[in-house]
């Protein structure tokens, strides 16, 4: 991959990452404001925090995206960016354009989704 291309993708990923992190911080600020139920014991607090985090912060989809972006950035660094994690084939440019942090090629992604559906 050319250095210029790598830089461009890196920038794309970092920008998207910033957006997601910003959304996460806003949500956490709202959680803090809404928390006036009085003192809780430690176990309750842990559960409560987890619930709040689950309910109010990033959606699961956003979390997965954030993790995917981090992985994408790491793959850019180690040079494996653009290769399918599953089969090692090159991920198509069109797919990377639509989803720059895509870890799987379309075939493997479909297979994975199919598997998830069957296990659901
Ligand atoms: Zn694949």
Whole-number count of domains: 2
Describe the main β-sheet briefly.
none
How many separate helices? 5
Mean pLDDT: 83
Q: Give a list of the ligands.
A: zinc ion
What is the rounded distance between the termini?
38 Å
Low-confidence stretches: none
Number of DSSP E strands? 0
Q: Which band does the percent of strand residues land in? A: under 5%
Radius of gyration: 18 Å
Strand pairing plus helix content: what structural class?
mainly alpha
The level of helicity is over 70%
The dominant shape is globular
What does this structure look like?
- With 120 residues, the protein is mainly α.
- It has two domains: 1-81, no CATH class; 84-120, no CATH class.
- The protein is 72% helix and 0% strand.
- The protein has helices at 3-34, 42-56, 60-78, 93-98, 106-119.
- Helix 1 runs antiparallel to helix 3 (60-78).
- The protein is globular and about 50 Å long.
- Zinc ion (ZN) binds at residues 84, 86-87, 89, 104-105, 107-108.
- Zinc ion (ZN) binds next to helix 5.
């Amino acid at each position: 991959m050319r250095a210029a291309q790598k830089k461009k993708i890196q920038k794309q990923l970092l920008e998207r990452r910033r957006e997601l992190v910003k959304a996460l911080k806003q949500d956490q600020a709202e959680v803090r404001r809404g928390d006036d139920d009085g003192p809780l014991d430690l176990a309750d607090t842990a559960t409560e925090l987890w619930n709040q985090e689950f309910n109010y912060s990033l959606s699961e989809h956003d979390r997965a995206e954030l993790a995917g972006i981090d992985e994408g950035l790491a793959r850019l660094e180690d040079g494996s960016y653009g290769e399918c994690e599953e089969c090692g084939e090159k991920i198509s440019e069109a797919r990377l354009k639509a989803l720059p942090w895509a870890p799987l090629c379309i075939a493997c992604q479909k297979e994975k989704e199919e598997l998830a559906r069957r296990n659901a």
